[in-house]
Design goal:
heterodimer; A: 324 residues; alpha/beta; Rossmann fold; Alpha-Beta Plaits; six-stranded mixed β-sheet; four-stranded antiparallel β-sheet; 25% strand; elongated; B: 278 residues; mainly alpha; 75% helix
Chain lengths: 324, 278
Amino acid sequence: MSNREIKVQNLMKQYSGGVTAVDDVSFSVNSGEIFGFLGPNGAGKSTTIKILTTLALPSGGQATVGGYDVVHEADLVRRIAGVALQDIGLDPLMKSMELLSMQAQLFGATRQQAKTRASELIELVRLTDAVDRRVGTYSGGMRRRLDLALALVHKPDILFLDEPTTGLDPASRRDVWEEVRRLNKELGMTIFLTTQYLEEADELAERIAIIDKGKIAKRGSPAQLKAAVGKESINLAFDSRELAEKARAELSDMADNIQTDRDMVRLYMSQAAQTIPAVVNRLQAAQLNPISLTLTQPTLDDVFLQVTGQRINAEEEKEAAKVG
Amino acid sequence: MTTQVSIQNTINIRRQQGHDKANLLLQIWLVTWRSLTTIFRTPVALFPPLAISIFFLVIYESTLGGAAAFIPNLSGNSYLGFILPLSIVSSSLSGAGIAAQNMVRDIESGYFDKLLLTPISRAALLLGPILAGALILGIQASIVIGVALIMGLESATGFAGLLLVVGLAILLGTGFAGFTVSAALGSGSAAATQGASFIFFPLTFLTASFVPLELLDGWLKTAATFNPITYVLEAMRATLNSGWDAALIWQGVGACLLLGTAMFALAIFALRVRTRRS
């Protein structure tokens, strides 16, 4: 198996005018891993991905992709890396088949091989029905899928996905996730993924790094990061405050910490899910029937909030509020 | 471990030998073909420049053609053969415009960056739209000549002379394209590129546009002497009206090559600036 690692050491990027977009960033991505790179807008995600995919030069430090230096062996990096950038660059006047087979030929395929590969990919991203239409008539989701197909033309060892599901509807987003997982599992592709959606990183990535103001603020598996933030909780709602108080007394020994808030009882503990049956039994024995029971697990959003002091989607919410 | 290393080496060797990358000629062909495809999918953009070239030809011939007998040095020659090259030169300009519009469209859509992520050579990126533009202007020039033939043009050098005129038009247009493509690469904006294309428009008038060079005087004559278009027009006119004149033809070719070399140097510089990984 070829080297499919990404190694980044003390990477720096300063733009003229003294803005430091990437400030002494180091991390490594193992062969065959899905690595999530999270951060708010302007944190340095896109700059990092541009350096790793040879579109920008670092001001300092070192980075290798598949063992090739991104500065001195850019041409070799381009041959083993597939890239789907956030701004989709597709020629609206061309058709998907033409774009794909041309790209395959640029990577050295013969005409026939290129046609075969293009058909495979069109099927893979389910654009068969749209194959005779110009790209300009595609929906956002279709364009993203075609862009992903273009990134896969040369069967890359390492795939860079810059916010691959931004602007997609939930169904298309699930499709992309499924595809990413499949590529990773079946072909052993290393996948470097930037995203603003914590849910996405949680769903896909084995390991995550959170970048904030150009520096890596936190790294680990999604579970580790969430565990570091706080405990899970079982939330019970009752008909009245009295019932809630009774329940609290009844359950006091079952949690590390109990809080009541009007008719709500919150039990904080680790491994809350496993404790639910015992809690339910105890309540039944005391003839206390909650009107609802929910389980809260810390989300990556909580991790993010703790690390960066802001909600990751704050921008978007503001936008939505404006529109609304 | 040893096997793993040796497989890795094989892959490295294969990649370094360039086996998974198209050769330069194929790259240029692919990019040119792509440009042509998009040009032919917006055929509306092709008609106005062609119509204007033909319009100029008809208007100049009808308004000035009758006066041609009074212009010394032109007596005995048809004014149509004299004015046709001007019309063809203006179609060279529009071919250059097409090349640049193609480039700027790719930059705006982001497709240009997409190509940069492939192992494509920078030369192919530059030549693709320029060659496509050259081919289109060759077709346009041929159509304009066809109209002139219908209007009664008689070439003193026959069909071969007409081919030479088209060849000169393509050569000149390629030089112009070096400039307009530089503007596209430098600005990345369609409006700015369009603006830059107009810079050459006055050049078609700062020359022996309507009367032979000898009849010009003062500053206009000075301007015309330094204008490469003058020599291209003279070569075309001689070929159409009086017969083969090697000296004039070489002057015309030389002027095109000089302009082309300068403009391509500019284009390569603009490409380097645009693709500089800053």
